[in-house]
Amino acid sequence: MSNSYYLLILLGCTLVTWIPRILPFVLTKAITLPPILEKFLSYLPMTILTALLLQSLLNFQAGHFPTLRFPEVFACIPALIVGIRTNDLMKIVLTGVLGIALLRLF
Predict the structure, then answer these.
(1) Residues of the chain whose pLDDT is less than 70?
(2) Domain limits, the chain
(3) Among residues 42, 36, 68, which one has the least CA distance to residue 55?
(4) How far apart are the C-alpha atoms of 97 and 94, rounded to whole Å?
């Protein structure tokens, strides 16, 4: 296969990835959304982050109830406290990474 084929594949993948991520921002700048829709959309980032957090804190097995991953839960507690106190995403992430690293070290 030629280099131009790979370049076309790369450009196609870029376009397919770019459209659903960037196009909504471009369209919402051009139009005004109703207040109820804006309120609904304001909850999406928190919902997505909560789903990602729960997925990393729970262990799922078919046919069983989810169980907690205790090292991740213990690392999440200081990160949650830092998040409540500072509202700084970088400090939250660093606290969580440092917490899980220390727990895995010992």
Answers:
(1) 1
(2) 1-31
(3) 68
(4) 5
Q: Alpha-carbon distance 106 to 50, whole Å? A: 28
Question: How does DSSP assign 25-83, residue by residue?
Answer: HHHHHHSPPPHHHHHHHHTHHHHHHHHHHHHHHEE--TTS--EE-HHHHHHHHHHHHHH
pTM, rounded to two decimals:
0.60
User: What spatial distance separates the first Cα and last Cα of the chain, rounded to whole Å?
Assistant: 50
Other CB atoms within 10 Å distance of the CB of residue 77: 12
- 106: number of Cβ within 10 Å: 4
Reference 103, options 76, 80, 82, 81; nearest CA is: 76
